[in-house]
Design brief:
With 213 residues, this protein is α/β, with parallel strands linked by helices. The chain has 7 helices and 11 strands. The chain has a single domain, classed as Class I glutamine amidotransferase (GATase) domain (Rossmann fold, 3-Layer(aba) Sandwich), CATH 3.40.50. The strands form 4 sheets. The protein has a 4-stranded mixed beta sheet. Strands 1-4-5 form a 3-stranded parallel beta sheet, with no helix packed on it. A two-stranded antiparallel sheet has the order 2-3. The mean pLDDT is 96.
């Protein structure tokens, strides 16, 4: 699981990973018996969007300990992993798209036929990934993510560096959006994307299904 290190949209708007998009999949993967490594672009403590803390329960607080000391992605030997999962949160819109290490990692997962998954704003991490021929990894793929309508309803459409739905479409993806706040997952081969926080558990279950679990 690769999370964001970015902690601020503006002084008035702290951000980070959206807690349930990390903790719900984390718990599902653990309960299914998978070993999990939590990494981030820079490593160290990963910020949590304070707006998402209201949802935290005891199980979430246990998973949150994994965010206290994430590994730098560059120090993780990713060849032995079966899947990569990118939780969302507005922080992902800032550091994941520009991470060359993440782009290389995602391309490696794609080329070796391994599962790639992301939820809500997590698909922002897919934007920099390219195939050997230089084409975007998402080109021609059915994907979803936080929609323009949801971004506007949340009041962050004018604060983001770009709109995720627009950027995915610009890269040639077939973006499939459901009504706002729907539990909605798209699977195109081994690429799995969830639309919003409500889709976190379903996205994790889709990963397990793709792994044959």
């Amino acid at each position: 699981m690769v999370v964001t290190n970015h902690e601020q949209i503006s002084p008035e708007h702290p951000t980070g990973v959206w807690l349930s998009e990390f903790t719900e999949p984390y718990a599902i993967f653990r309960n299914a018996g998978y070993e999990i490594t939590v990494a981030s672009v820079r490593g160290g403590k990963a910020p949590v969007d304070p707006r998402s803390l209201n949802e935290a329960g005891d199980a979430d607080l246990a998973a949150m300990k994994q965010l206290e000391a994430t590994l730098p992605l560059r120090e993780v030997e990713t060849s032995g992993f079966d899947a990569i999962f990118l939780p969302g949160g507005h922080g992902t819109m800032y550091d994941l798209p520009s991470s060359e290490e993440l782009a290389r990692t995602l391309a490696s997962f794609h080329e070796s036929g391994r599962v790639i998954a992301a939820v809500c704003h997590g698909p922002a991490g897919l934007l920099g990934a390219r195939l050997p021929d230089g084409s975007p990894l998402v080109k021609g793929k059915r994907v979803t993510g936080f929609t323009n309508a949801e971004e506007k309803a949340a009041g962050f459409d004018t604060l983001m560096p770009f709109l995720l739905e627009n950027r995915l479409r610009e890269l040639g993806a077939t973006f499939v959006g459901a009504p706002m706040w729907s539990d909605h997952v798209e699977r195109d081969g081994l690429l799995i994307t969830g639309q919003n926080p409500q889709s976190s558990a379903s996205a994790a279950k889709a990963v397990i299904a793709a792994l044959g679990g």
